[in-house]
Amino acid sequence: MNNIIETMLNHRSIRQYEDRPLSEEQIMTIVRCAQAASTSSYIQAYSIIGITDKETKRKLAELCGNQPYVETNGHLFVFCADLHRHQVIAEMEGQDLSPAIESTEKFMVAVIDATLAAQNAALAAESMGLGICYIGGLRNQLQAVTELLDIPTHVMPLFAMTVGYPLQESSQKPRLPIGHVYHQEKYNQDKQSYQQQLQEYNATISSYYQERTQGERSDTWTGQMANMLSKPARMYMKEFVEKQGLNKK
Ligand SMILES: Cc1cc2nc3c(=O)[nH]c(=O)nc-3n(C[C@H](O)[C@H](O)[C@H](O)COP(=O)(O)O)c2cc1C
């Protein structure tokens, strides 16, 4: 096994960090690695906002649902799908590019690009011995986030990522059985084997939680998912995305 694969397979989210900033060199390496990710048709439709200002971090922590590690970390990155620069290009090239920029397809392209860049950043950070945690809580109150960070139209903040020197030894969360996510040749729609695998996975997850919480928690994964999905969240998103001038047709 090489070092990169070892780092990937060792991933776990880290939610407690030393109050010690990353160096400029570390930050730039992480961003360069993010930029090295593949990008659809070379479109590079994303931006990364680095946050060091303590007050901005404090406000973001609050907006993200009072997640303390959004405030205390080595560095905070905000990843955005970004077609704003392509609107600037429209002006430079004297063309109306709005129909494409505002389409669902290009919105998806930008989200995919930003996510690929983010995972490269995560891996780069982890390979340096740093810990990371994605923060989808950023989407709790996007109007306030866009105002706080001065984000223009055609830009959609997707998630933040905390990075820093780990202060915790967290255990790894077991993933679904590989045959459940990797289909060979065709999508496997055999519900019986599907449910059987999920039952087995539930047993694994229950004992994982029991061990981690000294018996206090024993949730199953399907129970967790049903509970989460029974409460639709952030239902303002469609309207917000359209207000940002994205995913309109
Ligand atoms: C897009 C995205 C958003 C996430 N948002 C949060 C978040 O707001 N707060 C948090 O503590 N963890 C967040 N996570 C981390 C997940 O909870 C975590 O990756 C998952 O439970 C699996 O655990 P692991 O990363 O330790 O393997 C997020 C992960 C992703 C990919």
TrEMBL record:
Q: What is its EC number?
A: 1.5.1.38
Coiled-coil stretches are: 184-211
Enzyme class label: oxidoreductase
The entry's keywords: Coiled coil, Flavoprotein, FMN, NADP, Oxidoreductase
Give the top-rank taxon of the lineage listed in the UniProt record for this protein. Answer: Bacteria
The transmembrane segments are none
Looking at the Swiss-Prot or TrEMBL record, what is one Pfam family this protein matches?
Nitroreductase
Any idea which GO molecular function terms this record carries? FMN reductase (NADPH) activity
Residues covered by the Nitroreductase domain: 10-165
Protein family? Belongs to the flavin oxidoreductase frp family.
The protein's name is FMN reductase (NADPH)
